[in-house]
Specification:
By secondary structure, the chain is an alpha+beta fold. It is built from eight helices and five strands; from the N terminus they run αααββββααβααα. The protein has one domain: SCP2 sterol-binding domain (Nonspecific Lipid-transfer Protein, Chain A, 2-Layer Sandwich).
């Protein structure tokens, strides 16, 4: 579902479902998490439905009045640097991106922090795409 003007980060994130499908380690890590959250790449929002550690749905927005529990937002360049096969220091981790000021996490942070490693691994999955190239 590519739209005009989509950058490589948006295109990479649209492949998230195929990248994490069947990842039993990731599912085990998030087995206690059932949540709806949003990831924003530049001005493009994506809504993720997680059910007991499995990515059940990835919908591209915007969706009017679509609820989410927490959101992770960052600019396209920040995501691209985060998804490098071996990111530079300060670009290697979601929390490092927030400390750098190029990303933010908002909303109910309890499920985010309680399942931090799951969320980090899920959002780092597009690195696989850039390792291949």
């Amino acid at each position: 579902m590519k739209h005009d003007g989509d950058g490589p980060a948006v295109a990479a994130f649209e492949r998230l479902t195929e990248l994490v499908d069947g990842d039993v380690c990731l599912a085990r890590l998030g087995r206690f998490l059932t949540v709806e959250f949003m990831v924003e790449i530049g001005s493009t929002p994506f809504y993720l439905s997680i059910d007991q550690g499995r990515l059940k749905a990835l919908e591209r927005g915007p969706k009017l009045m679509r609820p989410w529990v927490f959101a992770v937002r960052g600019e396209e360049e920040a995501w691209m640097r985060f998804w490098q096969p071996i990111p530079e220091p300060g670009w290697h981790d979601i929390l490092a991106l927030t400390k750098r000021g190029v990303a933010c996490v908002e909303g109910d942070l309890h499920p985010f922090m309680a399942n931090l490693q799951f969320v980090k691994n899920l959002l780092a999955a597009p690195r696989k795409i850039f390792k291949e190239s």
